[in-house]
Structure formats: structure tokens, C-alpha cells
Design goal:
18% strand
Length: 454
Amino acid sequence: MAGPPLSRSRSLPRRLLLFCFLVSCIALATRTADASRRDLIGISIGGGGGISIGIGGGGGSSPSHQQPPSPPSSSEPQACDFENERIYRAYLVIQRFKNTITSDPQGITRSWTGTDVCGSYKGFFCESPPNVKDRALASVDFNGYMLRSASVVGFVDALPDLALFHANSNDFGGLVPNLRALQYFYELDFSNNKLAPCTFPTDVLGLTNATFIDIRFNRFYADLPYGLFCSFPIVEAIFVNNNQFSGSLPANLGDSPVNYLSLANNRFTGPIPSSIARAAGTLLEVLFLNNRLSGCLPYELGLLAKATVIDAGTNQLTGTIPASYACLRKVEQLNLADNLLYGVVPDALCRLAYDGGHLANLTLSGNYFTGLGACCWDLLKNGKLNVDRNCIPYAPNQRSHQECAGFFHRTKMTCPVSTHVPCYHKSYGVDAGAEEAKAAAEEYKYRTYSALKP
């Protein structure tokens, strides 16, 4: 009866030992699991005095190695740094264009930095647009800067407050940008550049406020559009000389209110349109020089009562000088040299150098005139008349008899001989207000001849 109780007493220590062993294993497993979880979620405490928690394979890192991301820093001026929003937007356009400049021999673009667009940027000028208090970029004047860029599209047309763009003597290529959306724009000068060869940029015709259009010394070709002489109701100057324009001059040429018109050094053919008579009240200077114009010397040129310069030299015009040219009381420079003109130089024309007229230079060389009016001989002696290489007896430096005879033998005299003088002067005294008008015009004297230089 004593056996079973003894067995139970011996097994009790074994059970206690097994229980302690199991407890130890469980505690060890628990510590290992906690450490694994800490590694997994990456808890790092101490060192830098902060806590960094990273979810993922590598866990977190000490603050000495990883900081919260900072906002991006920029050294570029912000909108609030500028005078107003208009100037800031212009600044962005200028900087974009600056990046397209591939040659700047005068270092102009070095001044295009900072926020003082209106004060320190060379070539840029600011004014307040009509009915607007804030100033805006109103004018760009790059004349003579010799900047080179493949195109100005995206620059000039991206300045909504622009009124003037002058870029004479640069190296700009590409096309003339469409400026129709520029509501204040009125002066355009792309002269003496390297714009892409193309026909007349018809988008220019949308500049209905234009007073100055200058695209001379480029590579435009083909006909002038009809709209050039009816799209600009307040235009003062149109310069298209020294291009490769060709074809007949538009029949509506005289419908333009232009004061200064230069068509010189192109390839125009056909007659000078008779509509030019309609420009009698506005046209001050006109150059047809060095083209291939033909037909009879037009009677209507003599109706340009306000003209001071008329130059139709170096063409193929023929006929006699119409009597209407005696009405050119304001003309100072009259050039008909190197044509196919003939007949007698009218005495009334030469008298424009006297008796209250203003004629200072009459050039008729390189024609086939056969005689001079009485007053013309005095003008010849005074150096105001040039009739070299004509067929005038007793005048110096004339063509040979054979050359003159050959011309008259092969030339059909089909042009009408006009003897009607459409103007009548009560006296040859100084016109009322003539001195005042002369002084007012002095500032722009011979603008068209100046346009013959780049």
C-alpha cells in the first residue's frame, strides 16, 4: 500500500524541472520575436535625440543620416519681386528669348538680369498703356545691336503690351511673327536682317494702327499685296526697298495715306500706277529707283503737290516730261536719270529752282533728251541740273551722234505729249505758310534716301 504515494513524490521534482525549462524557452522566444519586430519597423532611439521610424526592409536610420525634405530653393526672381504682374510676365519672355541668342558681340544680353526690366535692361523701355495705371513693356529697340537668333517668333508676339519693335541691323532669322493680337502695336522695323526668304508677310496687314512699316534689306520676293496700300489708315512710312519683290505695282498704290514710300532696288515691272495722283495730299517722298518699271512717264507724278523727293531713276520709263511737272512747287530732289526719256526739258520745270520754288537737284542724265529750256541752261551752269549722256547739242558729256540716231530709229514715239499745266500760280512769290511748313518738315527731310542705307 505504500508504493503509489512514493512514485508520485519522486515525479514531482521532474515536473517542476520541466515546467521551468518550458518557461525559459517561452521567454527566450518572446524576446527574439520582440527584437525581430523592432528590426522590421526600424525603431531607433537615442544618439541624435530624436526618433526615426522607417517602414521597410532597412528600417530607420539615425537623424544624423536622414533629414525631412526641404522645399526647393530657387535663385530666380519671383513675381512679387517685380513692379507689377505685367513686368514679371515680360521678364519671363525676355529670359526665354535670351536663351536663343547665339551671338551678342556687344554684350547686350548681360544687362538682361535682375528685376529692373524698365531701368537696366538694354533695348527695353516701359510706359503705361492707354487707360492702364501700371507700367508695361511698351518698346523694344535693338537697332544696331547685331544680335543673332534663329527666330523672334515667341518673343515679339508674346509681349501683349508692345507698341514698337525696332531691330535694324541684327541677325534675326525665321519669319515675321503674327502681331495681330498686339492691340497697341504701331511701329515695326525688321530692316537689315536675315529673315527667311518668303513672300510679303501678310500678317503684317493686320496691324491696322501701324504708322511705320520697315522690312527693307531682307530677302522677300514676289508681288506686293494689294492690301499694303489700303490696310493702314494712319501709316506714315512704308519701306520695302532692297528686297527681291517683283511683278507690277498694285493699282491702288495711291490709296495709301503714306508720307514716305520707298520701293527702290527691287525687280518691279510695268507702269507707275496712275492712282498715285490720289496721294497728292499726303505723299512727301517716293522712291521708284532702280527697278524695271516701264511705260510712259506718268502725268500724275506732276500732281504730287506736297512732294519734296521724287526718284524714278534707273528704270525703263519713256516719253517726254509732262507739263504737269511744272506744278511740283515743293520738290527739292527730282531724279529721272537712266531711263528712255526724250524731247526737250521744259523751261517751266527748271524754273522750279527759282521764283519761290524749292528745286535743288534735277538729275536727267542717261536719257535721250534733245534740248533744254532757256532757264535750264542757267541751272546747268549752277550745278543744279545734270544732263550728262543725253543727245543735247552744245551740252557737255553727251552721247555720240550714232548712239542717239540708233535710239530714235528703233524707238516708237507712242507716249502722249502733254502740254496742259494743271496748276496756276497767281505769283511766283513765297507761298503763305511755306516757311513754317518747311521748318516742320526739316526733321524728317530725305527719310527715303536714308532708307537706302542699311
